[in-house]
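Q: How would the structure tokens look for this protein?
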Amino acid sequence: MAVPLIGRIGVLILASTAFYAYVGQLVPQNEVQPPQETVLRTDLTTAEMVTTGRQIMDAKGLCFTCHTIGRSGALRFPDLAGIAGRVSERAPGVTDIEYFAQSLYEPDSFIVPGFNPGMPAINRPPIGLTDQEILCVIAYLQSLGGTPTVTMQTSHKYYTPAGAAPVAPGEAPANGAAPGQKAAPVAPAAAAPAKSAQLKPQAAHLGGAFTS
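A: Here is the predicted structure in token form.
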């Protein structure tokens, strides 16, 4: 007995639906949730900020979507290994805190030769890190080839914590030491360049990518 055409079409549809439903169940289902907002303690130690900064870069910051640590070759953005040790070479007279801050808040100010712009300002959407989270990221970046000195009360050109003194043009950022406490040492910087310690054009850094 011949099966009517409409019947054969129906069987084909059912078979196709069942097949794709089966295949769909074999594919791992990962639900992506928006990053949870985390309120950082104001009394985080510098060491805790370093750990928190790495976690932020791994997760909410999405930094390692483009950046690497300890890799070479064809990279989308430069590798970050030892980046803190290159600040004095790339930006003489600019503190590492100001160097990293400008690179994160204004990433397209300077582009590393050989790389294209494209890094978003991480304090704005779609990433939208808070000023406190950025301080933690700076602490972690300082640890890559340098000594972290930033605290939760550190001021820089783009952010002044409540109760902290703003950074004057050419002035080293405050270490955030509590009244009566000795501030963490900061390596002396050379004479600050003009225009509020803006990086020189040859001082390529994070913009579009961190310093190579």
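Residues 5-26 form the longest helix (22 residues).

The two ends are 75 Å apart (CA to CA).

Upvote if useful.
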